Amino acid sequence: MASACDICLKTTGFMRYRTVDYEATTLSISSRCTEIVAGEDNYGGDMDAAHPAQVHSPAACAALCELYPDCIAWTFYAESGSCWPKNGIPILKTSSDHYTGRCKSA
Fold first, then answer.
1. Calpha distance 56→73 (Å, rounded)
2. Cβ distance 57 to 3 under 8 Å?
3. Residue 22, Cα to own-chain centre: how many angstroms?
4. Could you point out which of 10, 23, 38, 92 has its C-alpha 20 to 30 Å from the C-alpha of 83?
5. Model confidence pLDDT, tens digit, residues 58-87
6. Phi first, then psi: what are they for 59, rounded to 5°?
């Protein structure tokens, strides 16, 4: 069973949480960040490269990106659960253990 914190974004000195009750709620993605591509990495343009968020899935990473109007793309690293929301134009690279996506303007 997944933890209560599905979307956590580290910010300078503290954690900001958005909790999800897995018994009653399904994490959904709006129409802004629906693209999920396996085997690609949106390299660079991180909103906070020193503190990636820890999430449980590519869909949760996309949902986190949707929380920020200036987020234009994201990358999820499956091995560590790290999510990098992007507000700069990233370079697309092949990487078998990453998932990525781009978002429409808010």
1. 17
2. no
3. 18
4. 23
5. 999 999 999 999 999 999 999 999 999 999
6. -65, -40
